[in-house]
Write a structure and sequence with these properties.
globular, binds beta-D-glucopyranose, 10-stranded antiparallel β-sheet, 33 strands
């Protein structure tokens, strides 16, 4: 069946079905509420990768240390003729983003009509709901199972087992399946309640890999409610807790869910006027970003691929802090606070990491999981048969993440004025990270400057380089921020130094290093990405040196650094333009984190009037541009789209402690949104 994907404002319509495309479509149609994610592959297709995820639920595993656990599939539906529908019938799916609902219609001619509604409840965080209506000429059979997942370890090679099914408990229309996780003290309970509707018959189904109910009847209207519970040994809420027996009221649960979505959209007040594709794509990425927010949680652990897939094994990168920063801080500050609260909880681990690697202060891991330890794999097997592995040095060298987190704390503070967060731990993060940089830099007498050697910048093609501009600039901001905050606070509190455990001498040193940190060479306004880049770069051509590619960048590096600088203090437009043009030619954009940054700068400079670059960014997941959307949603790219909206189209800047904005119209896109600044809500518009 040919397939088409049509974004419209607040709706995504997918017509037809193509099995070879279904895994990435399953990411586009994922439903989530910040805690629970349920992938959206067609429920009639019987896919074993149509799994669920719970935020923060990680397990030990070789190679990646710990990974997000792929949970059982709870949305698949089996009919005696489901393959006929897929192969011969029609399938039409609609993701209704205003209401947080996935609606599927399928059928064969007029004789069989299948209709379903799926939702992951926005308020009841562990609840997935599904309603199925079936009209056919005869009596029908529907099977609703809970299926054990297949956790791919290395695609195409092998699978891991995170869960082993220990126990099934059936009682009338409720099934409780208990799994033991590889972390042996943790049990997962998946509880399914089925409302079979009037005059239908319910039977049990148990196989080695699945358990559930078989429902028979005419004109079926079946509802199922699935809830996930984690039981940790010794923790409250044990396995024998009383199970609610009465069947929930579908309509009131659903309206609670839909009201919650519509209130959220109202608060954000996003209004877009433009082509359906443009406006629809923007609402699509925004919707998925909103699906990552758990508004009840104090802490948010957002993996690089969301709760939408197992890409990067559910690890948390700088993507979450730096790339989500503008969207969350301006539109949903509580969630940004949640993101940073995860960094608060893991600060002690970051202090330990710095110490273990020979430095002072706090050094955050390049890849994090729930426990805050460095989780970057040291190598990656590219060919298991021949035991061929590639070395991964990002864990050791991609240290800019520490400065990215500090930058995010400071930005969040400047925009929200959240003193409580800063007192609780924001100041400490800034101080401990500054301490790290002060111990990580070296003084180079020849340059009369502080240098940072042996790093990987955002451009990961170049390993072990010295003085990467991005890293040094972010370290400078970090040191300067800690210096300024302490010096200013000292005016009101003489005991502060004692309280913070720092000496005046140490603080003055941060100021000195910040002033004298090397920011490298410039050639006619173009800043060198790292020491020696100008000498090896070959006019945009990829140079192969052994297994390495040099001379071109993988992603925005200098341009991202300049963009951040422009946002918080200003950059001469001519410098921005020269660097943009120079690096645009020399960047492969192999990472999805790149194009949104170039698109933002292009809008700022007024050189992408027709929004061509921006429109390409909108294809990231909607067009499966990187060929890996099946692994999950590209969270950072979606965050990057909001860089382009807030700083590009709406022209927002922070200047001398104030918010300024100069909205600009680009192409035929008109847009308005509510943003939060220091407790006030401001509506900014290009309309
Ligand atoms: C990029 C990193 C990014 C990571 C996770 C890599 O390909 O180079 O900047 O943090 O993917 O999204």
């Amino acid at each position: 069946m040919p397939m088409s994907i049509e974004p419209e404002p607040y709706r995504l319509r997918i017509s037809g079905f193509d099995r070879s495309q279904e895994r990435w479509i399953g990411t586009l149609l994922t439903l989530a509420n910040g805690r629970l994610g349920v992938r959206g592959e067609l429920e009639l297709a019987g896919s074993r990768s149509n799994a669920c995820f719970l935020s923060g639920l990680y397990n030990n595993i070789p190679l990646w240390r710990r990974e997000l656990v792929m949970l059982p599939t709870v949305s698949n539906v089996y009919l005696p003729y489901h393959f006929d529908i897929i192969d011969r019938g029609s399938v039409e799916r609609l993701l209704d983003m205003r209401r947080g609902l996935l609606v599927t219609r399928a059928g064969i001619g007029r004789s069989i009509e299948y209709y379903s509604e799926n939702a992951v409840h926005r308020r009841r965080k562990n609840l997935f709901m599904q309603r199925i209506r079936l009209t056919s000429d005869s009596e029908d059979v529907v099977i609703l199972p809970i299926e054990n997942p297949l956790n791919p370890f290395l695609y195409g090679y092998t699978y891991t087992e995170h869960l082993s099914r220990e126990r099934l408990v059936f009682s009338d229309n409720i099934l409780r399946v208990f799994y033991r996780l590889r972390d042996a003290d943790t049990m997962l309970e998946v509880r399914m309640m089925v409302d079979p509707g009037a005059s239908s018959q319910l039977d049990r189904l148990v196989t080695r890999d699945s358990a559930g109910f078989i429902i028979r009847g005419r004109g079926l209207d079946v509802k199922r409610y699935v809830e996930f519970y984690i039981h940790r040994e010794g923790a409250k809420g044990d396995l024998e807790e009383i199970v609610r027996e009465e069947i929930p009221d579908w309509a009131s649960l659903l309206s609670e869910h839909m009201d919650s979505w519509s209130r959220l959209w109202d608060e954000i007040g996003l209004e877009i006027d433009g082509s359906d594709r443009l406006a629809g794509s923007i609402t699509f990425y925004t919707y998925h970003l909103l699906q990552l927010i758990d508004d009840d949680g104090e802490e948010l652990m957002i993996p690089a691929r969301g709760l939408h897939g197992i890409g990067y094994r559910g690890h948390i990168f700088w993507d979450t802090d730096l790339y989500l920063l503008p969207f969350l801080t301006f539109l949903y500050p509580r969630a940004m606070r949640g993101v940073l609260s995860f960094r608060c909880r893991t600060l002690e681990k970051a202090i330990q990491y710095a110490r273990e690697t020979g430095y002072r202060g706090a050094r955050y891991p390049w890849e994090s999981v729930d426990d805050g330890y460095e989780s970057t794999p040291r190598y990656y097997p590219v060919d298991l048969d021949r035991c061929k592995c590639i070395d991964i040095l990002t864990g050791e060298q991609e240290i800019h993440v520490t400065g990215d987190i500090a930058f995010s704390v400071l930005f969040y503070y400047n925009v929200t004025g959240d003193e409580e967060f800063m007192k609780r731990c924001g100041f400490r993060i800034l101080i401990e990270t500054a301490r790290y940089w002060a111990s990580r830099v070296e003084y180079d007498a020849g340059k009369d400057a502080y240098v940072i050697r042996n790093v990987i910048g955002p451009d990961e093609y170049h390993v072990g380089v010295d003085n990467n501009f991005f890293t040094n600039l972010i370290a400078k901001y970090n040191l300067k921020a800690a210096f300024n905050l302490v010096i200013n606070a000292l005016k009101n509190d003489e005991k502060l130094l004692e309280h913070l455990g720092v000496s005046l001498e140490e603080v003055m040193e941060w100021g000195r290093i910040a002033e004298k940190i090397s920011l490298g060479r410039e050639r006619d306004g173009v800043i060198e990405e790292f020491e020696g880049f100008f000498d090896i770069q070959a006019d945009g051509k990829v140079v192969e040196r052994g297994a390495k590619r040099v001379g071109v960048s993988k992603q925005a590096d200098v341009v991202l650094a300049l963009l951040l600088k422009e946002i918080v203090e200003g950059v001469e437009p001519e410098i921005l333009r020269k660097n943009y043009e120079y690096y645009l030619e020399r960047t492969t954009h192999e990472s999805s984190l790149s194009l949104p940054i170039f698109a933002t700068v292009a809008i700022m400079l007024g050189i992408d009037e027709r929004l061509e670059l921006f429109s390409r960014v909108l294809e990231t997941d909607l067009g499966n541009m990187y060929g890996n959307t099946h692994d999950g949603f590209h969270v950072a790219a979606a965050g990057g789209i909001w860089y382009a909206i807030l700083f590009g189209l709406l022209g927002i800047r922070l200047r001398n402690g104030e918010l300024v904005y100069h909205p600009r119209r680009s192409g035929d896109l008109r847009l308005a949104v509510n943003i939060n600044y220091r407790g006030n809500r401001i509506r900014i518009s290009t309309l």
